[in-house]
Amino acid sequence: xxxxxxxxxxxxxxxxxxxxxxxxxxxxxxxxxxxxxxxxxxxxxxxxxxxxxxxxxxxxxxxxxxxxxxxxxxxxxxxxxxxxxxxxxxxxxxxxxxxxxxxxxxxxxxxxxxxxxxxxxxxxxxxxxxxxxxxxxxxxxxxxxxxxxxxxxxxxxxxxxxxxxxxxxxxxxxxxxxxxxxxxxxxxxxxxxxxxxxxxxxxxxxxxxxxxxxxxxxxxxxxxxxxxxxxxxxxxxxxxxxxxxxxxxxxx
Length: 252
Ligand code: APR
What we know:
It is a single chain. The protein has eleven helices and nine strands. It has helices at about 5-15, 45, 50, 55-60, 60-80, 85-95, 110, 140-145, 175-185, 205-210, 235-250, and strands spanning about 20-25, 100, 115-120, 120-130, 135, 160-165, 190, 215-220, 230-235. The strands form two sheets. A six-stranded parallel beta sheet has the order 3-2-1-7-8-9, with helices on both faces. Adenosine-5-diphosphoribose (APR) binds near residues 25, 30 and 236.
């Protein structure tokens, strides 16, 4: 199908199936220069997720994990929201998107103007000291990263841990509970830029389906839920969502 046919079909679905809740993954931020995880050039094609992204790896060798994370922090903080983030914010302001549930830790939805964002993997907004519990804002962590590869707590010297959910850690209960509640109440769950391979988040579209809602997917390449989607748009998030927002939220 062409972009216009795809985005027209998605706009129609969004207009008819309300409330709509959006679930985003790393694919919504690649156009901001942030690599995703499982596409061919993704992070997990270069690094072993359990060697660099697990809580066990962090506890065993925090400096090694920071050598992986520090360049990502730089990319994350220099990135700007892209057309997909801006389109979702416009659709929220137009009353067509109730909330954005995101697996991303990059703060780009909030920076694009989305107001109701559920961060199920938390974010780089703060880092915490595992030694004394002190919490540090991103700006302070970036200052520390200028001086050393692994930021040490100014209070007690222990190496800080980013407040993002590592493999092997529990998701923030309040965020994941709200995400499942939103999925249950959604008439349409719109998945954008996620392969839907990581649970429990990948269970959210199933929750919508089980409670009578429908699923639409905008994703380059296959996802685990393609067969269950009312509409699958195999396209670029920025282009497709901007076209939908132009059709439905022109004035926002
Ligand atoms: N437009 C549309 N789709 C895109 C774009 C784009 N511009 N760029 C990438 N994609 C697609 C990829 O093809 C891939 O199918 O987005 C999907 C991203 O999937 P993943 O890399 O698996 O990312 P995600 O689903 O967010 O991973 C979930 O896994 O490693 C953990 O904690 C990490 O939050 C992450 C979780």
